[in-house]
Design a protein that fits this description.
This protein is mainly alpha-helical and 676 residues long. It has helices spanning 5-23, 57-69, 80-96, 107-124, 162-175, 180-187, 199-211, 235-255, 258-283, 285-288, 291-313, 326-334, 337-351, 358-375, 384-408, 420-429, 432-443, 448-454, 460-468, 470-490, 494-503, 531-551, 556-564, 572-581, 602-617, 625-641, 652-669; strands at 45-46, 51-54, 74-77, 141-145, 151-155, 195-197, 216-220, 225-227. The strands form three sheets. It has a four-stranded mixed beta sheet with strand order 5-4-3-6. Helix 5 packs antiparallel against helix 6 (180-187). It is elongated, with a radius of gyration of 42 Å. The model has no long low-confidence stretch (mean pLDDT 87).
């Protein structure tokens, strides 16, 4: 597919632009930005047509409560309850009468009195008035509907509740001289509501009443001045501006040309994506030429803008709930700082067309995005995510206070609940961690998080190397320290260099005793081997290292260090020994030469130098400042003469810095005292 790479790239770009446009709301953009309490700095605004003034949410809520208060709840009258409960009372009475201790001649009087009192309560009506509605007053009107759907208005003051019915029973039984304890025990168990609240019918009545509430109050006539230049936007003016904006957007949605809206979005989105691609082409050709990387970047941008569009479509209460900072964090960790900032700016510019108060939105999100990028410039531990989240929250807070002070001019007027969406946004930003892991696996990218895990010396391969080839393991640690300090000084990915240095010699685990750092005193297996075979064993540790790394699923970026740390140099010790002992024989020099390739980045170039210098420094019998300095200069010059660094993008100035660092660190390692 490589010959179609360019076509595929531009197909992905067009697809991304199309998907973003498809997701974005198809609405026109009101040209004016305004806020309550701010001065109108634009020219006088005159109404171009008649439009109604919308009520404020507070006014609408007052109207809603007022009309609902006048809606009488509907209760249905159940006639069967009276018959069932009176009959039940008689049955209970007959069961308990023999043990009541009351003269038999009074039995009829007792039973008839109970039936009459219960019938009176049920005919009047028994209900629980607070079951579905908490009245503002003690008594209120209700509508009672019987089985024939005939409605009657009643007030709860003339109806019975269970407590009120029991009080009525007590009074009547006392007046009639009957045994209250006996009768109340029977009668209170026969109180069941026969007025049942009709939730469905009452709800329909409320909906009908609410639908009749007017959402407007007054009109603005065509040619009427809405706001004059230099006027402070008070509540009335603000409401007129909101009404004008709503009328404008609704009219444009109905009468506007959707094709032109689509075309306008195509111009804007196409321009921003084009700027991004031009940036990649000019400054990050490595990413531009890799369609996987371009595809990942376009996916992140499209997903974020689609999320914003979904939030607008489903009318999320506040668009600041969306974790905009997740984009720069993902791009920074997977790529670099410049690209992260560039992409974040482009995303915010597009989003600014669809959020209210776009300048404030841009200020909030650009500053927070910059802080999120700066806070993970050098990602060395996972805990930096929490530090970054804290700094982003602090940035939002400072911006929130600043804007609030400008807008309100009064601390007491700040509505702190408006800061809550920013807190939620920061919490959602932590989702960047699992997303980065997913992107790494899908797009085969190595992030700093993966490098942190690989540099843990308890990692499986490193523990195995420490056990099988302890000398090589110690050598790798020293090389990692040298290379990391050098690349940090000249500019580069220090974490990548450290990981590459720790794994560059894992191929030596196959035959550890054939490498001098793992040999015990007095034993060298090369003494019994031809020089050519010894050279091939030494050279093979590169191929074996690549095989081990591939089976262990190490990232390609780490495997590149294994391939290039010797470049295509010769194994000079065995080559010179062969020439010295067999001058008459012809030998193919390639037998003694590593297969390459040579280093092709600053990181791999620095590792080659660190590896050679650290290994050679072990051969110095009496290390001092002079011998170490000469060793470093000699090896660096040798690599230059052998053209090993020509593709590594390391300048002569960088080399001087590298040599200085290597000399200083080696002197510290070998405890060389410096004269001063």
């Amino acid at each position: 597919m490589r010959k179609y790479a360019t076509g595929i790239k531009f197909l992905m770009i067009l697809l991304s632009v199309f998907l973003i446009i498809l997701a974005l709301p198809k609405q026109t953009k009101f040209r004016y930005e305004f806020e309550k309490g701010r001065i109108w700095n634009q020219s006088d605004l005159v109404a171009p047509y008649n439009f109604a003034i919308l009520k404020t949410s507070t006014d609408l809520e007052k109207d809603r409560l007022a009309v609902l208060q006048n809606v009488a709840p509907i209760y249905r009258y159940n006639e069967d309850v009276q018959m069932q409960q009176v009959e039940g009372f008689v049955n209970d009475f007959n069961l308990k009468w023999p043990n009541a201790g009351i003269p038999e001649k009074l039995k009829d009087k007792y039973v008839e009195t109970g039936k009459v009192l219960l019938a009176h309560v049920y005919v009047t009506g028994l209900l629980n008035p607070t079951a579905k509605r908490e009245p503002v007053t003690q008594y209120f009107n209700i509508t009672v509907v019987n089985k024939n759907n005939i409605a009657a208005d009643k007030n709860t003051s003339v109806l019975y509740t269970k407590e009120k019915a029991i009080n009525y029973f007590e009074e009547e039984l006392t007046l009639r001289g009957l045994d209250r304890a006996f009768m109340l025990d029977l009668m209170q168990n026969r109180l069941q509501n026969n007025l049942i609240y009709d939730d469905k019918l009452t709800g329909k009545l409320k909906d009908d009443v609410l639908s009749g509430i007017s959402a407007t109050q007054g009109m603005v006539q065509k040619g009427e001045l809405i706001v004059a230049k230099g006027t402070v936007i008070n509540d009335d003016i603000y409401q007129k501006l909101l009404s004008y904006k709503k009328y404008f957007e609704d009219s444009a949605r109905v009468n506007g040309n959707r094709k032109l809206v689509f075309l306008g979005q195509f111009f804007l989105v196409g321009l921003t994506v084009t700027l991004l691609i031009v940036f990649l082409h000019l400054f990050r050709k490595d990413i531009y030429q890799d369609n996987r990387m371009v595809g990942l970047i376009l996916l992140v941008i499209t997903a974020m803008l689609a999320t914003l569009s979904a939030a607008i479509k489903f009318q999320v209460p506040n668009l600041y709930y969306i974790p905009y900072c997740i984009v720069p964090i993902i791009i920074r960790i997977l790529f670099d700082t410049r690209l992260a900032l560039n992409i974040h700016l482009l995303v915010i510019m597009i989003a600014g067309f669809y959020v209210p108060n776009s300048f404030e939105f841009a200020f909030y999100e650009i500053t927070a995005g910059m802080v999120s990028i700066y806070s993970i410039k050098n990602l060395l531990r996972r805990g930096q995510f929490l530090t970054s989240a804290l700094l982003i929250t602090l940035t939002y807070l400072v911006a929130f206070l600043g804007i609030s002070f400008i807008r309100e001019g009064d601390i007491a007027s700040i509505e702190w609940i408006e800061f809550f969406p920013f807190i939620v946004s920061v919490m959602l930003t932590l989702l960047a961690y699992p997303l980065i892991y997913a992107f790494e696996k899908v797009f085969r990218i190595t992030s700093d998080l993966t490098l942190i895990e690989l540099t843990n010396t308890n990692a499986h391969l490193l523990r195995e190397m420490a056990f099988k080839a302890p000398g090589t393991f110690q050598h790798s640690l020293q090389v990692a320290n040298l290379a990391e300090n050098a690349i940090y000084s000249i500019g580069g990915n220090a974490l990548l260099v450290r990981a590459g240095a720790l794994y560059h010699d894992i191929g030596k685990m196959e035959n550890p005793l054939y490498f001098i750092e793992n040999q015990t005193a007095g034993f060298n297996p090369h003494d019994k081997l031809p020089y050519e075979e010894s050279a091939q064993i030494i050279i093979s540790h590169v191929r074996k290292g690549v095989d081990i790394a591939t089976k262990a699923d190490l990232p390609e970026a780490i495997i590149n260090f294994i391939r290039t740390h010797h470049g295509n140099t010769r194994v000079d010790y065995f080559y010179q020994s062969f020439l010295k002992n067999f001058p008459e024989k012809f030998i193919d020099e390639n037998i003694f030469r590593y297969p390459g390739p040579i280093p092709f980045s600053k990181e791999t170039g620095v590792l080659m130098l660190a590896d050679s210098i650290e290994a050679a420094s072990r051969s110095i019998k009496e290390p001092d400042a002079k011998s170490i300095s000469e060793l470093v200069d000699r090896i660096v010059n040798y690599k230059l003469n052998q053209n090993q660094l020509k593709d590594s993008d390391i300048t002569l100035k960088d080399l001087e810095t590298i040599k200085t660092i290597f000399k200083r660190m080696l002197m510290s390692i070998y405890h060389v005292r410096i004269d001063y």
